[in-house]
């Protein structure tokens, strides 16, 4: 028997860890010792020398504990940096977090806005570029401030939207930057020397991502081949947690892909007939010009249309259904110029040996200041039909894929990496 605040209590097989009156607010105040929650106690009227006997009817042994206070997180607890360029990309990123953490203070010279949270066992810092300030230089500034304020960030992600290179890549697909041949996963196409026309020769190289991320990427690619992507599962989870986002961020049924032919009508014009029609229009236009009947229409517009329809024919062979999400691994071309021309896009791809899967505007600025993996949801084809219809859905798909990658990133591997701030200080 042990004395506990004047009460005689049995010691075995039961254990009290805290004073009786602080254990459970559910004990009645009539000093009978009965618990309103379980009513499984046999007790006598309590007094200064009474005995409290707890029965073994429900618990054996009975251990009552107090909740351990949650540890207060500091800047040093965050090891993953996640950078996005657009508010819609930040919305998708925040919606993918398992938990959202309270904000922390930041230095006066840090103008970034941060969202803190966690996925799996990783504490994550999300930062978005200032509204209206896009491109490589702005991305580099945001990343530099982030690793200064959160000095133990060791791995980075650049997650958002980009333009796909057909016919390999389709709207709603995901492209993950992966080292390819002599390229480190991301190439800054507008750093180099011009040779002929729009062709150029790339000069210099960008940093590779941390080894921990590349290891996780290998596991992710293997799992995708064997079991398929879990991206759709994470998209569905987002819809359950944030139902207001469903119409634009998780549902692609109402979105149209200009390179996807899904016309079951018996009167539908075949792709080859369409190509033939464009060809004869170009011939007649040239003939009319030579005879002085009309001015010559821009030839590249017809060529772009023919390229699109040819891509349609190739894409049809893949039989991808609307809503399917495919993940591609390969080269991303990054530059400070928006690409909205199919001819230039294809020339750029050809100059990089046909390895380009995606074009975008921020990643190259990060690679030397914030070595990371770039994940892009495809929202357009970087041609004259570029629009914003697919952007929110593509942002959510990219964020879901980033979450899946983090599920395969081992905390022990992250611990083994040096902080990005230290790596950069070494020059």
From TrEMBL:
Q: Which residues form the Nucleoside phosphorylase domain?
A: 81-179
What residues form the membrane-spanning segments?
none
What GO molecular functions are on record for this protein? catalytic activity
List the SUPFAM superfamilies.
Answer: Purine and uridine phosphorylases (SSF53167)
One Pfam family named in its UniProt record? PNP_UDP_1
Output one GO BP term. nucleoside metabolic process
Designated name of the protein: Nucleoside phosphorylase domain-containing protein
Q: Which InterPro entries match?
A: NLR-like, Nucleoside_phosphorylase_d, Nucleoside_phosphorylase_sf
Task: List the source organism.
Answer: Cochliobolus heterostrophus (strain C5 / ATCC 48332 / race O)
């Amino acid at each position: 028997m042990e004395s506990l605040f004047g009460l005689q209590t049995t010691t075995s097989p039961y254990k009290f860890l805290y004073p009786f009156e602080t254990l459970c607010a559910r004990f009645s105040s009539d000093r009978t010792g009965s618990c309103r929650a379980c009513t499984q106690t046999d007790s006598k009227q309590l007094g200064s020398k009474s005995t409290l006997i707890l029965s073994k009817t429900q618990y054996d042994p009975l251990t009552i504990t107090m909740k351990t206070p949650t540890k207060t997180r500091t800047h040093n607890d965050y090891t993953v940096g996640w950078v996005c360029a657009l508010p819609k990309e930040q919305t998708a990123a925040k919606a993918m977090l398992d938990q959202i953490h309270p904000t922390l203070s930041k230095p006066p010279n840090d103008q970034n806005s941060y969202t803190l949270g966690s996925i799996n066992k990783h504490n994550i810092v999300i930062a978005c570029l200032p509204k209206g300030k896009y491109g490589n230089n702005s991305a580099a500034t945001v990343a530099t401030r982030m690793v200064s304020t959160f000095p133990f960030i060791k791995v980075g992600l650049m997650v958002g939207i980009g333009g796909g290179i057909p016919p390999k890549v389709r709207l709603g697909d995901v492209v993950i930057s992966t080292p390819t041949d002599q390229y480190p996963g991301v190439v800054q196409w507008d750093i180099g020397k011009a040779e002929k026309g729009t062709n150029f020769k790339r000069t210099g190289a960008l940093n590779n991502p941390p080894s921990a991320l590349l290891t996780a990427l290998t596991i992710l690619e293997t799992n995708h081949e064997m079991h398929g992507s879990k991206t759709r599962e994470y998209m569905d989870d987002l819809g359950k947690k944030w139902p207001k986002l469903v119409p634009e961020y998780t549902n692609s049924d109402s979105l149209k892909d200009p390179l996807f032919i899904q016309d079951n009508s018996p009167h539908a014009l075949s792709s080859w007939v369409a190509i033939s029609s464009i060809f004869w229009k170009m011939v007649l236009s040239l003939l009319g010009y030579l005879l002085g009947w009309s001015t010559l229409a821009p030839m590249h517009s017809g060529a772009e249309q023919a390229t699109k329809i040819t891509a349609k024919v190739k894409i049809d062979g893949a039989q991808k259904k609307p809503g399917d999400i495919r993940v591609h691994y390969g080269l991303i071309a990054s530059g400070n110029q928006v690409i909205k021309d199919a001819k230039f896009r294809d020339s750029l791809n050809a100059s990089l040996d046909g390895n380009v899967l995606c074009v975008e505007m921020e990643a190259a600025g990060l690679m030397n200041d914030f070595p990371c993996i770039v994940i892009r949801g495809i929202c357009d084809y970087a041609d004259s039909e570029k629009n914003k219809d697919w952007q929110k859905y593509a942002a959510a798909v990219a964020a879901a894929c980033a979450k899946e990658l983090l599920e395969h990133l081992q905390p022990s591997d992250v611990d083994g990496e040096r902080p990005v701030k230290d790596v950069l200080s070494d020059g």
